[in-house]
Amino acid sequence: MPPPYARHTPGLLVEARELTRVYGDGEGVRALDGVSLQVRQGELVAIMGPSGSGKSTLLNILGALDLPTSGEVYINGQNLTDIRDKDAFRARTVGFVFQLHNLLPTLTARENVEVPMIGQLSSRARRARSEELLGLVGLADRMNHLPGQLSGGERQRVAVARALANQPPLVLADEPTGSLDTKAGEGLMQLLRDINRSQGTTFLVVTHDPAVARQTDRVIVLADGRVVREDHIGSPLEEDLKMWIHSDLGNLILAGEREPMRSLGISPRQAEALRELFRARNEGD
């Protein structure tokens, strides 16, 4: 019998409680193993972790694309298990951006942005909204182009505009910069940050890239289907220090391993100074 859960916590846009997701019979594959997290309205949050850590599974459950084996999810105050028409719920509450833009190749950028609004708004209102959104993402002069006539970065910007079509409070982005070069990826993340600040839209961004995670407010780290760490993003120096501490080299320094330090040209005195710095930073967390 599942454990009793308290009602949704006021002030949270996303609340997950003890989520598990098991695929297969018997022991099966435990993709999520007791994941709990909270996200407030207006946050820009990164979800990181190695392949197979449960990132995409978590995003699918938060987006009502999949159901947990156990646990509860509240989105904008609604318990997902109580929602019968999940398609309608997603249309008005959650936007999606994927690594591959998934644009319809025979439709223009404007027409692609209009797709989620079909059945929601009149033709005239859809056109006005799509033009507004393409202006917001910097593509006002490309709205009549087909996806094949756009660059990779431009196609992802159209995908962002499409995700915002019905003004959802939450946008889930699964590796949105994964297929882009460094410059285009940086531009896309700056766009998400600008929209987050100007529109108040909440973003959850799955990424493998520490540079992408640095442009968010907070990082949730998964491993083996569990939340193992949460970090609030600080200054560039603080973020470099966090990366050092959680790297293989940082673990060796904290463990007091001397031989690897010598091979890297780090003197015992320097290693000890780094160890004290790392310990102080960990205690501060």
Question: Please, could you describe this protein's structure?
Answer:
The protein is of the alpha/beta class and 285 residues long. It is built from 11 helices and 10 strands. It has helices at 55-62, 86-93, 109-114, 123-136, 152-163, 182-199, 210-213, 236-245, 248-255, 259-263, 268-284; strands spanning 12-23, 29-40, 44-48, 70-75, 78-79, 94-98, 170-174, 202-206, 218-223, 226-232. Helix 4 crosses helix 5. The longest helix has 18 residues, at 182-199. The radius of gyration is 21 Å and the shape is globular.
The helix count comes to 11
| Percent of sequence in beta strands | 15-25%
Note the main sheet: 6 strands, mixed
Distance N to C terminus? 37 Å
Coarse shape: globular
Order of helices and strands: EEEHEEHEHHHEHEHEEHHHH
Structural class: alpha/beta
What's the mean pLDDT score?
Answer: 86
Provide the gyration radius in Å.
21 Å
Number of strands: 10
List its traits:
single chain, four-stranded antiparallel sheet, 11 helices
